[in-house]
Amino acid sequence: MGALIEKAGTVVPSEEDTRLAAESSRILAANRPDHALRVQLEDGRVLTLPVAAARLLEHLLTEMAHGNAVTLIPVHAELTTQEAADYLNVSRPYLVRLLEENAIRFHKVGTHRRVRFQDLKAYKDRMDAKREMAMNELVAEAQELGLGY
Questions:
Q1: Inter-axis angle of helices 92-100 and 81-88, to 10 degrees?
Q2: Which of 26, 119, 13 is nearest to 67 (CA)?
Q3: Residue 129: what pLDDT?
Q4: Which positions ≥6 away from 80 have C-beta within 8 Å?
Q5: What is the pLDDT of residues 64-114, one digit of tens each?
Q6: What is residue 79's predicted lDDT score, i.e. its pLDDT?
Q7: Cα–chain-centroid distance for residue 86?
Q8: Total-model pTM
Q9: CA distance 50 to 32
Q10: What does the pLDDT look like over 42-60, one tens digit per residue?
Q11: How does DSSP assign the chain, residue by residue?
Q12: Rounded to whole angstroms, what are the CA distances from 51 to 34, 37, 91, 120, 145?
């Protein structure tokens, strides 16, 4: 049985997919392509993939090797509020509140809100940076207090 397509664009790897992805990922990582990657298909044809695609493929295979579901989202994509909430791993009502508070840019198509992926990613990156900074401050404080961290 192959990978399960959970929802549009999301692939959940089967056990066999995970095994094959791990093997392929190791091979790609060992070769670290800094030029186009050539892939021979079963019918003998050869595909030439650009370096950027080879790096993306390596990342995709690594995630699949860990059994993670993978979704490929074009940067210019516009997401529904539910898709955006799923990406941030928050509830849709919470995401709508973020939109209404102007924490994330959005626009309306009729009565429906749409969020550009790049705006959503920018918000996520800002939040991740804030979390990391707060964690670093906590660690520094714990070290000052001699709490063993």
A1: 100
A2: 13
A3: 96
A4: 112, 113, 114, 115
A5: 999 888 887 776 789 999 999 988 999 999 999 999 999 999 999 999 999
A6: 92
A7: 12
A8: 0.56
A9: 13
A10: 999 999 988 888 888 888 8
A11: ---EEEETTEEE--HHHHHHHHHHHHHHHHH--SS-EEEE-TTS-EEEE-HHHHHHHHHHHHHHHTT--EE---TT-EE-HHHHHHHHTS-HHHHHHHHHTTSS--EEETTEEEEEHHHHHHHHHHHHHHHHHHHHHHHHHHHHTT---
A12: 6, 7, 37, 26, 48
Provide the token pair at 108: 């309306």
Place of tokens 């401050």: 137
Lowest mean pLDDT among 11-15, 16-20, 126-130: 11-15
Length of the chain as a residue count:
149
